[in-house]
Design goal:
The chain is of the alpha/beta class and 249 residues long. A 7-stranded parallel beta sheet has the order 6-5-4-9-12-14-15, with helices on both faces. Strands 1-3-2 form a 3-stranded antiparallel beta sheet. It has a 3-stranded antiparallel beta sheet with strand order 10-11-13. The longest helix is centred in the N-terminal third of the chain and has 15 residues. It is elongated, with a radius of gyration of 19 Å. 43% of the residues are buried.
Length: 249
């Protein structure tokens, strides 16, 4: 296969899946891993992707926001692992905030069957699934954002400021040691930040594709929440642990 054909295959794959490993490319294209490493380095130099440990991930625009339908298809197994572990952190009688993220959505099947559990969310999708499980649910009022099914705006923020949570579980688009936790949308950032500040503990649920990524708006500094992820490269794990608690599941 010609060099430009390999490059196009890698970029097409990343556009669909978000991340790819050197082993996956090598096996699919019957090309040596050393050649693939050179290809990835070239594409990163052209600012077309971001190299990560063992592979590469899609380089996104700072203000790009995928739809909920698109997000739910990416890294589903990893999200379910993170969500299952997050469910074990909820104790009897907890009141929690469940953010309108695709990974937090995967938490719902793993929430304890506890009649004293109370969940507040800013997601229409989450609220419907919570009600199907018979979980006491409060949904914030405000403006419905069509792409992510999230409720945002000043009304939702005012409601949040009057509520207190044992734990908040947040989705995030990027985690970076300098930029902290980031997301593309200013209004969603305010909701996430307010919920975290109103909680005794705040957890960011993020698969490895969100690591070393920056989006448009800072939500929180790293120290203001704890990270739940599926697989963090050892060198970056050491860096993150200087700032906050990180749990790999």
């Amino acid at each position: 296969m010609l060099t430009n054909e390999r490059h196009q295959y890698i970029l097409n794959y990343l556009e669909t899946h978000g991340t790819i490993t050197i082993h996956e490319i090598s096996a699919a294209l019957a090309t040596s891993e050393s050649t693939i490493r050179r290809d990835l380095q070239f594409l990163e130099d052209q600012k077309l992707l971001l190299r990560v440990h063992g592979g590469a991930q899609r380089k996104t625009q700072l203000n790009h926001e995928a739809s909920m339908a698109e997000k739910r298809q990416l890294h589903l197994i990893e999200k379910q692992k993170i969500a299952k572990y997050a469910g074990t952190l909820i104790k009897e009688g907890d009141t929690i905030f469940l953010d309108a993220g695709s990974t937090t959505l995967e938490m719902i099947p793993y929430l304890p069957t506890d009649p004293t559990l109370k969940v507040v969310t800013n997601s229409v999708t989450h609220a419907l699934q919570l009600l199907e499980r018979g979980i006491e649910t409060i949904i914030l009022g405000g403006t419905l954002k069509c792409t992510t099914n999230a409720i945002v705006g000043p009304t939702a923020v005012e409601q949040l400021q009057q509520l207190y949570f044992d734990k908040a579980f947040l989705g995030m688009n990027g985690i970076d040691e300098q930029a902290g936790y980031t997301t593309p949308d200013t209004e969603e950032a305010i909701i996430k930040k307010t919920a975290a500040l109103q909680s005794q503990e705040a957890f960011v649920l993020a698969d490895r594709s969100k690591l070393k990524q920056r989006s448009f708006v800072q939500v929180l500094s790293l120290k203001q929440a704890m990270i739940l992820t599926d697989n963090c490269p050892k060198d970056y794990l050491k860096t993150l642990k200087k700032h906050t608690k990180v749990t790999e599941v």
